[in-house]
């Protein structure tokens, strides 16, 4: 096997063995490994199949930029695809699987695709399948047929269907300074800002702070850089004003310096502690941000550059130095810059054999030469790699190369190697800066884009700014931190760095043009030829190039491919790179779990709202229903009873003796102040200033446009003290409506509104025996007709609890609403039940409540539906002519007084069958021919008082149709039958019962 | 006197829960004061109103947004411009009613309408930060001060009543749901219900 674990060195713990499985086979690694490093340590270099051609692929990087080594992880009973093996920390029992291969990773049938290689160029699928006419199938139809199979063949991992049982959370954080990246620059910035008295959050996507210090092999302040970083991070974490977040990727930079981050709290653990989330979404509001996000290494594009065994030089260095893994037995290095020489030396030091260093440049720095000597090779200058061989890399082809002209010459020489470490230079990680800045600026010496001008409060430090040496990282980091510090902090002495003086600027060589597939984007299988094809076909803009070839898409978002792709397009167009433009980066920087965005249990978006008497209802066996957020009893069913039987029984009991219903959910608003009466006159259509203290009145509100808005009773408790009730569903809207008018339209009115919905428990007691029952339990007030007439209010006590009783009726019976403090709700309710026992009191639910109101023709939200007017509902008697009110100016518009408007009527089923809500009313037709609608049913029930199925309806002409026949036409429920249109006051239209 | 019944019902279960590896990080209790009232001033009379609150409760409220005071027998904090939540012993609403004239503003008793849930302990700020986009650090949210905010549909008025202690006033009908939400949020740090 080629790759292997070294016997010493690295930041892993060789004494702690960790077992894991890959494609069903068990392996071991060490604590501190990633899945990628552990696989390499086990000699596994083939880890996946490519997106389009199913070519064998290996580990290409060591970090978040990984395009190739995507695996599916199985955890908590859920499969999660497309996770870079470089980002998976090894834990005991980790279960991972390779992707996009059948039947196995080693022998993949679809790899035949690559034989048809030339066919599968950019736009192949669209060009081939969008156009042709094949029998009856043509154009887009044909595409849709083919797409299914194409998608199956191409692609990444497969998502699962199981519910994710894991917990996700969100967290809000505030800080003065947010530092992104805990490499040498970020550590220095955080320290300077923290010592300057600022509240600092330092976020690092890797499990350990240190960044490049963990694998650079350099020395800081006489200590190995990794050790220096560790000490520094520990010191920072111990400070009160610093929060160090590792495993935390800041992925979005939003307005107002609000940044989004994903903390992987539990992914690295075999078992999470109780209550710990898997991921935590952080919403961080920072006054200032320091971007110290480092740089990404770029590949060089050459034929066969995707073979397992080819990887970035910085990654090879990191595997050697951080993970104690030599990624090959015979390592070759191919570079256009000095940084790869450090990798060569590191690989040699770790025990690998460095076979060759191939450098496109004719000259190199003395420091690079020194490192080559350490690596034990004489660099092959002015040469390039032009090809590779082997399913897993066995050989590379080398040819003389002129970096100035890009021309190859001389014979091709094979060199045996099982690992090729490639470096094409470094690009600052400007992704977040791009989200909060203008266009990035091209630097002709670094051959990379530098951060743009900020449009928000951030500064940069370290390699992010193009300062590529560790010494510069330390100084720019310190300075950025100082600039963010509130008080004049003294400039701390900079740590001393011992590092070779490498040349940081690469040669401007991005591609070696030779025969064979040369990949620009490894994840999407986009080749250099695809880019040139796009150019030939006119997709020359960077944005078009991206969409046509898919360059830079998918999970890695082109972290390794953007700049080379751009360079190849620039070359094809004969333009300098900056003139071709660049794509800007949008969130997220790296993939984010959807769970973390939802982040809360679903029910908490819809909390249960319970009345004070809720537990009593449940104990009593009530079947509860959700009404908005509220939970209300639907029926109190007896064993074996259907819903219909139960509500008929309950409603009949109210008319026969007495019933009780929980009305605590009604919206209640305290309206107080010297101008309260005037305010109510303006918001209600009818007068309230004339209402006597101790009396209630039914009121109707319109919207500004004259449409009916809400109704309810308002009680005058004092001269300047009103209690307004609203419908349950509309309480919040009414409050908003009223507050808007007070704040914006009539700020001169001295009125205060307070929601007191929850202050009062309410029980409506109705039926011929209601008064007798109250007389049995109410103390400190009489409830006879004289003391408590219709719409009167008294204050008294029930079972020692203060109550407020208003005589009003929704059921049409002699009825009272008994209000008491919510905390006394159950107590008073139980006392009422006891007082009602001799009368056989029946608790009733929403169904019976609805039945009683339909029998009376009282309107609710089903009729006040945002389309009807007061006239439509025959409530025009409530429209005062003595005063203006909200809606009065627009309620007489032509369309609102049209004779053909649908208006409120009652309907009676003539065939003894139930009616259905929403069913149409028609003049003629049949089940097959549904006829022309003249209106619709808004509510229906079986009426025990009338022994018929009845309903309320909105029908053209309204009253004019009373006494006529029509049909109910319900295509949904397949119902067609005769009805009679009648007055909506079905029962006791004179109101003798409630006034009795 | 009839006892006020807690809205938490069986959701209130004394004991310790969640991750107790380092002991409970917070303690959750129900801390609804006997009296809760809202006092609101007309524009221009906020100073007079806070003077009246001081006369009744002895609490001197600074004239600043979010201001609040925690006293021995009562607490008060701002929940909006010229609006205060005042809580304390029996009879407080009546006394406020008497002290605050109609010219000054209004008083509304909410003793039954709101419930106060208390979270205390070293991880209180952490747990609350999961639920509210507020800066709970002592510098930004000192003892005594109040904040009016919301968690989705649930309005919440929060007062810092101690170095590591917050009282969250919610509508009574939402108290049980919010209590369960608090418990769930505190599982990570471990919690004790008392």
Please, could you describe this protein's structure?
The complex is a heterodimer of chains A (996) and B (194). By secondary structure, chain A is α+β, with helices and mostly antiparallel strands. Chain A has 23 helices and 55 strands. In chain A, strands 11, 12, 15, 16, 17, 18 and 32 form a seven-stranded mixed β-sheet that branches. In chain A, helix 4 runs parallel beside helix 5 (225-237), helix 7 runs parallel beside helix 8 and helix 11 crosses helix 13. The longest helix of chain A is centred in the N-terminal third of the chain and has 15 residues, at 139-153. Chain B is α+β, with helices and mostly antiparallel strands and 194 residues long. Chain B has helices spanning 46-57, 92-99, 124-131, 175-186; strands spanning 15-17, 26-30, 35-41, 68-70, 75-80, 83-88, 105-109, 114-120, 146-151, 154-162, 165-171, 191-193. In chain B, a hairpin with a 2-residue loop joins strand 9 and strand 10. In chain B, helix 1 (46-57) crosses helix 2 (92-99). At the A-B interface, strand 11, strand 43 and helix 21 of A face strand 7 and helix 4 of B. Chain A: Residues 176-439 form the FAD/NAD(P)-binding domain. Chain A: Residues 903-988 form the Aminomethyltransferase C-terminal domain. Chain A: Keywords: Oxidoreductase. Chain A: It comes from Chelativorans salis. Chain A: Residues 613-883 form the GCVT N-terminal domain.
The helix fraction of chain A, in percent, is 10-25%
Coarse morphology of chain B: globular
CATH topology heading of the largest domain in chain B = Gyrase A, domain 2
In round numbers, the mean pLDDT of chain A is 94
Features:
heterodimer, A: FAD/NAD(P)-binding domain, FAD/NAD(P)-binding domain, Arc Repressor Mutant, subunit A, 23 helices, 55 strands, 22% helix, B: 194 residues, alpha+beta, 2 domains, five-stranded antiparallel beta sheet, GCVT_N (chain B)
